[in-house]
Amino acid sequence: MKKILLSFGMVALLLGACQQGPVRYTQNSPEIETVKKLIANYDSKNYDTSMYADTSKTYYNTNDDALSPSEAMDYHRQSEVNYASRGFGNEHQEYEMVVTDDGETWVNSWLEWGCTLAANGKEISVPVHLTFQFVDGKIVKEYGYWDPTEIVLELQKIEAEAKMMEEEQTE
């Protein structure tokens, strides 16, 4: 009898250990769909802030200087003058949603961003990591990380060439 009770106890313990808890990682969620819509809006130059909480903070390549949702959209609008075209490609896009040990919901994305510079037609491709914290279906924090070096150097080169040509014309 002792062996039967012990066997039942072990089976119950194993079944209890196999029960699924709440989903902590997924590649399909409403939050991921929100991020995909945000990316599509960016690509179509639709600067909609309705996905963000009013108090949301956006950090691009920094941990200190936060932008409000409208300031983040202005940042994108202002950079438009540099590009004949720009946007995220359809390939090499990865999205995941995780719920942290503290219960925070984050969507991480790894994307390929590309542009054609307006001044010289040079095409540049940059890997980008974006991560978004969600509360009640709204983005409350966004962090974006990418290496802008190639674009900055190319824009500086274009500016230097324009300045040299201007100086030559004034001589």
Sum this structure up briefly:
This is Nuclear transport factor 2 family protein. With 171 residues, this protein is an alpha+beta fold. Helix content is 37%, strand content 34%.
Could you describe the 3D structure shown?
This is Nuclear transport factor 2 family protein. InterPro entries: NTF2-like_dom_sf. It is a single chain. Helices cover 37% and strands 34% of the residues. It has a single domain, classed as Nuclear Transport Factor 2, Chain: A (Roll), CATH 3.10.450.50. The longest helix is centred in the last third of the chain and has 22 residues. Strands 1, 2, 3, 4, 5, 6 and 7 form a 7-stranded mixed sheet that branches. The model has no long low-confidence stretch (mean pLDDT 89). The protein contains 4 helices and 7 strands; from the N terminus they run H-E-H-E-H-E-E-E-E-E-H. The protein is α+β, with helices and mostly antiparallel strands. A hairpin with a 2-residue loop joins strand 6 and strand 7.
